[in-house]
Amino acid sequence: MNVVPLRAQNLQKKQQPLTTVLKVLSEKFGVSFSYIDDTIKDKESVLPPTDISLEATLEFLRTETQLDFELLNNKYIVISKPKYSEAKFLTQKLKEVFVTNYLTSGITKLNDGSLTIKPRTFGILPGLIEPDVLQTIQALPGVLSADETVSNINVRGGTHDQNLLLWDGIKMFQSGHFFGLISAFNPHTTKKVSVFKNGTRAKYGDGISSIIDMQLPDEIDNEFKAGMGFNFINADGFAKIPLSKNTELQLSARRSITDLINTSTYEQYFKRIFQDSDFNDATKNDDFISQNESFYFYDIAVKFLFDATKKDKFRFHFLNIHNQLNYDEQSVINDRSEALNSNLIQNNLAFGTTYLRDWSDKLSTTAQVYVTNYDLDATNFDILNNQRLIQENEVYDGSAKFDINYEANLNFHFNGGYQFTETGISNLEDVNNPTFRSYIKEVVRTHSVYAESQYLSNDAKTRLNLGGRLNYFGKFDLILAEPRLSFSQRFLNFFRFEVLGEFKSQTTQQIIDLQNDFLGIEKRRWVLSNNQTQVIENGNQTIYPIPVLRSKQLSTGIHFNKNKLLVSAETYIKKVDGITTRSQGFQNQYQFVNAIGSYEIKGIDVLLNKQFSDIVGGWVSYSYSNNRYQFDALNNGKPFPNNVDITHAVSFAGTYTNNNLKLAVGVNWHSGTPHTEPSANDNPDDNRISYALPNSSRLNDYLRADCSATYAFNISDATRASIGASVWNVLNKRNVLNTYYTLDSDNNINTIENESLGITPNVSFRVYF
What we know:
Elements: E1 2-3, E2 16-17, H1 18-29, E3 32-35, H2 37-40, E4 44-45, H3 54-65, E5 68-72, E6 76-80, H4 84-96, E7 97-99, E8 107-110, E9 115-117, H5 133-137, E10 143-144, E11 154-155, E12 163-167, E13 170-171, E14 176-177, E15 182-183, E16 192-196, E17 210-215, E18 225-231, E19 234-244, E20 247-256, H6 264-274, H7 278-284, E21 289-307, E22 312-333, E23 336-358, E24 363-382, E25 387-407, E26 412-432, E27 435-456, E28 462-473, E29 478-491, E30 495-506, E31 508-511, E32 525-528, E33 536-538, E34 541-543, E35 549-562, E36 565-580, H8 581-584, E37 596-611, E38 616-630, E39 640-641, E40 648-658, E41 661-670, E42 674-675, E43 697-698, E44 702-714, E45 720-728, E46 736-743, E47 749-755, E48 760-768
Parallel strand pairs: 3-6, 12-17
Antiparallel strand pairs: 1-3, 2-4, 5-6, 7-8, 8-9, 9-16, 10-11, 12-13, 14-15, 16-17, 18-19, 18-48, 19-20, 20-21, 21-22, 22-23, 23-24, 24-25, 25-26, 26-27, 27-28, 28-29, 29-30, 30-35, 31-32, 33-34, 35-36, 36-37, 37-38, 38-39, 38-40, 40-41, 41-44, 42-43, 44-45, 45-48, 46-47
């Protein structure tokens, strides 16, 4: 093993030994290259352009040398020989890169309109000390969370259930720990995350608002890697273990420390999540004493890689995500003390097997089978009313996929395949006093075929993806065609114009029946489309109409990228049909109304990103949108604001990266979300609340400032470590995320306000081997 010294050589505009190029780059970026001498023997390259970042430089070298350059901790770069097929894939992928360091290092925009996040090379974002996948996505223009959680991410005005989350190709129905405050997916074992807001590849079904595709490392490199760390919420560890030349085991585990240590971060999280729950109501009631509350979460991920031959590869996947809350309620009734235990368990279990076959240099196939199971259970005791309520929401999703890739040449690439999916969702509600039980289960089977052609010009200035997906829903005898389009054209060297479009559909969505569903903590439950057009009463069961969701979206954008300055503007229009009032979380006059409608959103996303030097950068983004509901049966058929209609949103951030030190500060502001106030003419004696026009009022503007810092250092030649600190909502600004109204026993109107996180510090320490 050899380490290049930090020396500079005279720049030359011709092919020269790679060792010479590495010496120049070592001095320029303050990095060290590690390699085996035979790896770079006889390799040559021209010097990369002087005005591009380190990450873009490594991409350039990968193209020139067909070698793999892995950046570790922004300082050490390991050079290795990839397999031929892998090198070919990297070469093709490099031509698709349009913008590196889209917001910070590790975030790249491709010229098919998608964004790629690589946690391993991730820089830093304000308020984050670890590359939390779903928190990072919220920094992208057009993506935010109206309630600050990763279980309610709104992409261009959509609800969270309209996002398709894939973990190594497996569909996920649970996205967060701590009921949405932390991503449930370990970023330290995630190699790449692909995000599509529009122009989605034809191979993806569902996800009418976005695709979030998380991928683990898929190549065996026979290198051992491991790490462990902790912060004020959880501790975790991961390992990548070569078992032989053709087998590898990847492991990761994370568990909360909140049931062992009471930290300031946990106190803020606890206050935020449980402020509007049955648990918090019990603590406010003089008749109750809440005690012995216990909350914890964990996740375990396993991936086993087996290369049977050079052309045949098998991959096995396993993931378990778990959240659990227990608490006691105690009351004195008739001079007798009674105590009962209420609990909430949320779990997502997934298994999968993938077989990859390289038939030739041009033709490859992938077959995958997976099963994922989501289960949400709650038992809630009401001691005063001698009542016990059991609720359960269970999702079973199984799929078989076959995918074909054919690369005719460097210009044309074809992709096609078939997918069969069976989804079953059940909902149980059981009350003992009065006796009531409702159990509803729906199953939908979907057959899908898709095909897509991709064209990339020789100079990489023109790219066109044109494809489509055909879905057949056997239960409804329904066929839906979904065309997909992605076109981009570079002109005047530094400008790129793009057009993206898609039709999509999905049969799953989340609804809210009552405000206190699942103890008021996890209010949303998954349901399946039944394609009914009217309410059906069947004994204790009430079947409400739930159509198949359908969306249409078109967007255009223009981007300028020169001298580390990026100016980007995208305008879009999206229409979603088949939504129900029960899926939108109304807390006004429409809370108990069942109606079918749509929403249409028009908007523009603007980003200005400037790297002032290799160590200082910053960006500002602005989003404008107009998001309107249309329910023929509501508001006299007139459009009215969507519950997550955020008209204006601005974010600003600055970063400083110098060797091992990273700093970030930022501000997020957006206009308030709509809500409905009681009518000025409300009758206080009619035992109900009369409301004004729906969503005719707005909450106060939202404002939050965050900061974060990390520092990496070496413990030994083989061991690295990093420490980090962050503060969320530095100014401790009180932000109201939601307002609704209830009646008390005296018919007085009470105002309920859900507040955001207050000032929330966090500290982390990690070690890498």
